[in-house]
Amino acid sequence: MALFELHSRNLAQEQVAHTHDFHQLILATCGVTELSMEGQGERVTARRGCLIPSSRHHEYQGDGNNRTLVLDIPVAQLASLEKGSEIERLFDKPRFFSVPPALNQLTHALANQLEQCPGLQNEIAILLLRALTMYLHDATPAAVGQLGQHCISERLDLARLDAWLDQHLADEIRVEQLASLCALSPGHFHSCFRELTGVTPLAYVQRRRLEHARTLVRHSTLSLGHIAMLVGFRDQGSFSRAYRRYFELSPSSDR
Fold it and tell me: Is residue 150 included in any domain, yes or no?
C-alpha cells in the first residue's frame, strides 16, 4: 500500500493556483517552474527546491521542458516514520532552499529509479526525505555557507543556460559558447560549472540531450534516427549507445 504519492512530472505551461491537505516537496532535475507561496515567488530549478506545508495556498507555472519530482506527503503518515518529528519540521513553514550538487545528483538518480520501478515509490520517497533532512537540519552553518562559495559566480545562471541549450540541442555546443553567455572565461566557467552542478559542462549537455530525447522517444512517433539528429547525435548508433548507458535500456525498448 502506498504511503506517499511520488511522481516524475513535466509541469505544463499553464498557471495553477490551489491548496491541498497534504505536505508537498518539489525538486527539479532540469527546467524551470515559477512558483509563489504567500507572496514569496521563486523559480524551482535544479538549484532550488521547494517545501509546501499542508493547506498553504500556492501558484505555479512550468516551462513545459522541466523534469520535476513531486512528493505528496499525507500529514498523518509522518508520525509513523523513524525520525518523523525531524521530517515534520521540514514543513514548519513554506520555504525555498538551495540544492547542492550531491542532492541534485541523488534526485536525478531517484527520478530514473522511480520511472523504472514505480512500485518502489515509498522507499524512494523515504530516502529522499531523509537525505533532505540531513542536508537542511544536520549540515553545520559553516558547511552550508561554504557550498558554492569558492568560485560560483552570480553570472552563472543555470536556468538561462538551460533555455539556450534547449534551443541548440541539434547543434555542436562548445564550452566557449556557454562561457560567453555568462561573460566568463572558458576556464573559470568550467570550474564554476563543475562546482555548481557536480558534472562538467559537456557531461551536462549530454544529459540534457538525452533527457529531451527520452521525451521524444516516449511521446512522439518520430523515428529514432530523426530524434538522434534533433538532439545532436551524428547517427542513430551513437545515440542508442549513449541512451542505453544513461537510462540502462535502449530507446526502442523505452518506446
Answer: no
Number of domains in the chain: 2
pLDDT score recorded for residue 84: 56
Q: Is 196 exposed, middle or buried (0-12, 13-18, 19+ CB in 10 A)?
A: buried
At 191 the pLDDT is 80
pTM beyond cutoff 0.70:
no
Residue 214: give the domain boundaries.
Answer: 158-254
Q: How far apart are CA 34 and CA 44, in angstroms?
A: 6
* 22: Cβ contacts below 8 Å, ≥ 6 apart: 54, 72, 73, 74, 75
Supply the pLDDT for residue 3. Answer: 78
What pLDDT shows up at residue 83?
54
Q: Which ranges constitute the DSSP H helices of the chain?
A: 75-78, 84-89, 101-116, 121-133, 141-146, 158-167, 175-181, 186-197, 201-219, 224-230, 236-247, 251-254
Amino acid, res. 44: V
The model's pLDDT over 119-163, given as tens digits with 9 standing for 90+, comes to: 889 889 988 988 888 887 655 444 334 434 444 545 677 888 888
On whether both 29 and 119 belong to a single domain, the answer is: yes
